[in-house]
Here is the input.
Amino acid sequence: MKSPSLIFISLVFALFHFAGCQRSELATTDQATSLTKVQLQLDWFPEPAHGGFFQAAEKGYYAEVGLEVEIIPGGPGGRPIPKVAAGQVAFSMGRSDDIMLAVQEGLPVLIVAALMQHDPQAILLHASHPVNKLADLDGHAIMAYPGSAWIPYLKKHYGIEIDLLPMSYGLARFVADPELIQACFVTDEPFRLEQQGTAVKTLLLSDSGYDPYRVIVAHGPFVAENPAVVRAFVAASLRGWADYINGDPAPAHERIGRENDHMTPAQMEFSHSEMIRRRFITGDLQEGESLGSLDPQRLDGHAALLLEVGVLSAPLPRERYVTFEFLPHSP
Here is the structure.
């Protein structure tokens, strides 16, 4: 699952704005079925990181709450956050730090639930590379998405300098260059590379203390106008995620395999098991907390950190970028 460039988000939003793009009707009811139609824009091609949404669709959880959810594949040009901001789709996904910066830039997007309690993003290196911890990245170049907020954080936290290389799609460049360092997701690229015979190691960014949520994000005006639809979507999605993580993931995997022929059964099994083993979805939830929970203090702390490292230019009140109204147990 890939993270969009925040610079790209701002530029696309500006283009939408100045082109006079009008918000479309994001929820329509099919009179024949009485189901309300909404769209969910994925942030990448279908993969296990989207498994709970596909599980909810395949097992009828969306239909049970009166929704027909169209799950739209992403990709290099998917533009999930700009599409939500422009009112082209009602829902998408992203990282909480990306959403904070997007809101600071004026995009009308709102976090409505957590998708992952912990971030699976990591630094990917060849197994033979001399860098063995994040502080060792000093003086190295990393291939990553421009605007990624973790880059200035690492620089300040460890007192290091890092050069940024623009991200390329695919792994051919990494395989060909044993010195190359790039961003990855521990649930994806390491397995594919090992299967190809390339030995790798990873440094999880959350080990540095930089650990944003991965979140479900919605179009702000849509949330205000359609709270019942948002509540139903969040509830059915979280039910899908609980079933995907705790039950049989086969319904989701069968659909993912149909829609993305690059996703092999072995890859999906690895990704699913890594999400469980590393507790990316469940995190460290306490008794009484449910999947999707968001901790206000954790969000406040992360916003303060982004302000400290200069990613945010001014304090960002929590109510501008998140609502707890649709969570199973509101704070």
Notes: Confidence is low (pLDDT under 50) at residues 3-24. DSSP finds 13 helices and eleven strands in the chain. The domain at 121-208 is CATH 3.40.190.10 (D-Maltodextrin-Binding Protein; domain 2).
